Amino acid sequence: MNAPAPITGFSTANVHALATILEASETRSIIASRDIFDISGTKLWARDQPVSQSLQRKLLDRQLRQPLESCLLAEDGITAHSLVKSIESLLASDTPLAPMLRPYAEKLVREVARLPLHSVAQLLLTASEAARPESFEHAVQAMALNGALTISHGGSTQDLRLALLCGLVHDLGEMYIDPMYGEADADRALDFQSYQQLVVHPHVGNLLIEQLTDYPPAVARAVAEHHERLDGTGYPHCLQRDQVSPLGQQLAVTEATLGVLRGGNQNLSRASVALRVVPGEYNLSWVGMISDGARSQPGLRATLSIGEIQTRLSQLEAALQLAQDTVGTLTKAAESENMKGALTLAQHLLDRLRKGWNSSGLWCMESVSEQDAPEVEAIEDELLFRLRSIQRAALLRARDLPLKDSVLMNRLRDDLINSIS
Q1: Domain limits at 70?
Q2: Is residue 268 part of a domain?
Q3: 6 occurs within a structural domain
Q4: How many structural domains comprise the chain?
Q5: What integer pLDDT is reported at residue 21 of this predicted model?
Q6: CATH number, residue 197
Q7: Residue 389 has pLDDT above 50, yes or no
Q8: What is the mean pLDDT of the chain?
Q9: pTM
Q10: Rounded mean pLDDT of 393-401?
């Protein structure tokens, strides 16, 4: 896959992040912690002055001597104490996560209270809590779940603190894209144009941690990898197993679990299915805790009849076959390297889906029973979601194409859309 958008630094104020900070300043005290200068030395904002809409106008298209994020301070923002309160509230809630987290409550609370909050992370988390509360809630859940995974594996205190930090800051990059693309279940629902925006957020988050904080490099790397999958089907870089760090592999499981729960499927069993449906996507040593937690909670319920499930399985099988046939045909006609690369990626993704299909046993549709129906329906939904995602991934890989290859890509897009509509 091609590299994300070429964001290399923070010499100008990001319009989306600034808008979120300004919205937060309506209910939080956010001030300049130092004088703010543009690159030519012109003073734009004085130290200790509260941020306001006037700051936005002065920053417009101005190159800054120092990143804006390093020049602002949330005086009454997120603290380790308030994070503890958030964790305690999560543990006391009736969400599917809470029962799984409670055995680890004592260690979680103790180490969250000791987390180092760099001023930049604290500023952005404060802005998120005030202006994007669902995003902040997700950060707290990721912090808790990632920490619990580490405790369950016997990790050291240092390991636990790193895991907690990774979970807490993993989505800060979302603040730098249009908020309509950073919603809870965005990467499960967005069209390609929107997906292009979302896909850069792990890269931006990595740059934030790497360039603007003093957090360990392992945290920045894990943030960059939290949407990668070990079989090369994740984003933004389609990394393979040996290219993803241990912390990144763990954080990917945390993110995938919460992604399912945020998408309206408030059931750990559904998350467990999503993590296992295509073999090789995730590190199973981290998936085990999710599967164990699912077994102790209410199971899945089917929403379709056996006949309806069998019909949809037949349609999915036909869609997989059509997609594979189309990719094979187009590969023979492709001219540009971009098109060939996109089709190679599409074929790889389809091969991974076929492996999931074969290992699930869904090809033997007559064997689906009333008892099996809930899990079969969940597996079918997950495979269908993966099939829809292939179009986006291939388009992103292709980018600019000559006219003939653009026509071929449109055919792939149309065949995928028509086969699963």
Answers
A1: 15-74
A2: yes
A3: no
A4: 3
A5: 97
A6: 1.10.3210.10
A7: yes
A8: 87
A9: 0.89
A10: 77
| pLDDT tens digits, 76-91 | 999 999 999 999 999 9
Residue 1: its pLDDT value, please?
39
Domain-located, residue 10:
no
* 374, two tokens: 């809930």
Residue 95 lies in a domain: yes
Copy the structure tokens of residue 78: 């997120």
User: Do 362 and 222 fall into the same domain?
Assistant: no
Same-domain pairing of 327 and 275: no
37 with 181, same domain: the answer is no
Same domain, 66 and 88: no
Are residues 174 and 144 part of one domain?
yes
Q: Token pair for residue 59? A: 């920053």
Same domain, yes or no: 107 and 136: yes
> What CATH number is associated with residue 325?
1.20.1270
Q: How far is CA 63 from the centre of its chain?
A: 30
pLDDT of 179 strictly over 90? no
Alpha carbon distances (Å) from 389 to 51, 188, 403: 41, 8, 24
> Within this chain, do residues 155 and 258 fall inside the same structural domain, yes or no?
yes
Amino acid 396: pLDDT: 76
Q: What is the average per-residue pLDDT within 140-168?
A: 98
